[in-house]
Amino acid sequence: MRAVAIKSFGGPENLAACQMPDPQPEVGEVTIDVEYAGVNYLELMFRRGFVAVPLPFVPGIEVAGHIRAVGEGVTDLQVGQPVAALTIVGQGGYAEVVRSPAALTFALDTLARPVDLAAAAAFPCTMITAYLVLSAAARFTPGDAVLVHAAAGGLGSALGQVARRLGAGQVLGTVGSPDKIAYAQAHGYDRVFLREHYREAVIAATGGAGVQIVVDPVGGNLRDESLEVLSVLGQLIVLGNAGNGEDTFQSTNGLWLSSKGVQGFNLLAVCLQAPEKIKDAARRVLEWIARDELHVPISGVLPLEAADEAHRRIEQRTTTGKLVLKIGR
């Protein structure tokens, strides 16, 4: 099969097209003929060597296509069925065929209306994360004010819409440049601020009360700053380090005295330890997408062999929404 693999750790130029053996499903797994694969920041981290995986390594944590084969014990999926899948456990999505746990593979032909396969490939990582971050990690309550950093990115676009769909009182966002403000506002946000002076703006927008939830996929100094705009009993949700900043350390006594909390969210950890929560979230989110209550924003579709260009665009922070690789011929 055709694939794009990490040949050595480093920059986007270390992604190379190659031929790999077709994978075969093991117990509880399926293989998928991939039509599209989403491109995500986590795949950039693997390419840089954040995790010392054996090389060559095929990245790719979400795909859409059709079931090629089913392994022993799989009874709810059939050959030829259109599906989306979170392939985050073993990765491998930048290829014509990928293995996926059946528990993380989501049928598309059971929905009220068809979902485009490109959109289906771009929804699992961001939309499932957005739903679980708000409903489970942050313990969202209708009427809550929510602040999201990197509001114009793929995850930010999902978080704004899901917060709105769940009944947020205010949905506020930050972006790194003025040209991204309008895009974010079109994806669920009431107001969007430039990151360098967002704290005063957020406090003013909430009448001095602050927000109940801050979602931070950026990292660095934003971790500490975000606590300043949280209301009492508010939650800061930490789920990434897109800014590649140094880790920060928060005093637990400080959290106690301020009655504020910090909660982590890692999609891979949830997939490994609570796949049933992933499946339930996928089912709900896919129904919203099928009913046009959520929009999967795709900023570009590139051929598989241009995966390196997709990585460059993400690193240069010039993208809004999601980039998708077209793999099926």
Write up this protein:
It is a single chain. By secondary structure, this protein is of the alpha/beta class. The chain is built from 11 helices and 15 strands. The protein has helices spanning 41-48, 117-122, 124-137, 154-166, 181-185, 198-205, 222-228, 252-258, 267-273, 275-290, 307-315, and strands at residues 2-6, 15-19, 29-39, 62-70, 82-86, 97-101, 105-107, 145-148, 170-175, 191-194, 211-216, 230-238, 261-264, 298-303, 322-326. The strands form 3 sheets. Strands 3, 4, 5, 6, 7, 14 and 15 form a 7-stranded mixed β-sheet that branches. Strands 10-9-8-11-12-13 form a 6-stranded parallel β-sheet, sandwiched between helices. The protein has a two-stranded antiparallel sheet with strand order 1-2. Residues 10-325 form the Enoyl reductase (ER) domain. It comes from Gloeobacter morelensis MG652769. Pfam families: ADH_N, ADH_zinc_N_2.
Question: How are the SSEs ordered, and which strands pair?
Answer:
Layout lengths: L1 E5 L8 E5 L9 E11 L1 H8 L13 E9 L11 E5 L10 E5 L3 E3 L9 H6 L1 H14 L7 E4 L5 H13 L3 E6 L5 H5 L5 E4 L3 H8 L5 E6 L5 H7 L1 E9 L13 H7 L2 E4 L2 H7 L1 H16 L7 E6 L3 H9 L6 E5 L3
Parallel strand pairs: 8-9, 8-11, 9-10, 11-12, 12-13, 14-15
Antiparallel strand pairs: 1-2, 3-4, 3-6, 3-15, 4-5, 5-7
Helix pairs in contact: 3-4, 3-10, 9-10
Structural descriptors:
329 residues; alpha/beta; six-stranded parallel β-sheet; 15 strands; 26% strand; globular; Zn-ADH-like_protein; Quin_OxRdtase/zeta-crystal_CS; Zinc-binding dehydrogenase
